[in-house]
Amino acid sequence: MTGHPQQGRHGGSELRPMMITTTNELEGHRVTRPLGVVRGLTVRSRSVLGNLGASLQTILGGNITLYTELAEKARQEAFDLMVQHAQERGANAILAMRYDANEITDGVTEVLAYGTAVVVEPR
């Protein structure tokens, strides 16, 4: 991700476009005000039916689409919450964006999206 505007898709209020990058700088822009770390956290569990369907997909091999969809939804929700947090602070960009995920217990996973919220302006 290199400084392209991102639009969130998580329900609720509409998220404004925001520049988000995994790098520490945004090409063509300068940071005028750092606003600190922002994050979005979601905790998801797999349903019994989802586990059953995924087990059948595991037997057949290949992409386990039920888990892929669950992971993508969790990442998108965490991402949108991070963007919302940045907007609440008045940011127009997020630098050094990262994801982290941990299994809390069997079948329950937390997904964290985080980065540094900043105000940038073109050089």
Overall helicity: 25-40%
Percent strand equals 35-45%
Number of strands: 5
Distance between the termini: 20 Å
The CATH fourth-level homologous superfamily: Hypothetical protein apc22750. Chain B
- Spatially, the strands of the biggest sheet line up as 1-2-4-5-3
Order of helices and strands: EEEHHEE
In summary, what is this structure?
It is built from two helices and five strands, in the order βββααββ. The protein has helices at residues 48-60, 65-88; strands spanning 2-6, 18-21, 29-45, 93-105, 108-122.
Explain what the structure shows.
The protein has 123 residues and is of the alpha+beta class. The protein has one domain (2-44, 72-122): Hypothetical protein apc22750. Chain B (Translation Initiation Factor IF3). The protein is built from 2 helices and 5 strands, in the order E-E-E-H-H-E-E. It has helices at residues 48-60, 65-88, and strands at residues 2-6, 18-21, 29-45, 93-105, 108-122. The chain has a 5-stranded mixed sheet. Strand 4 and strand 5 (108-122) form a beta hairpin. The longest helix has 24 residues, at 65-88.
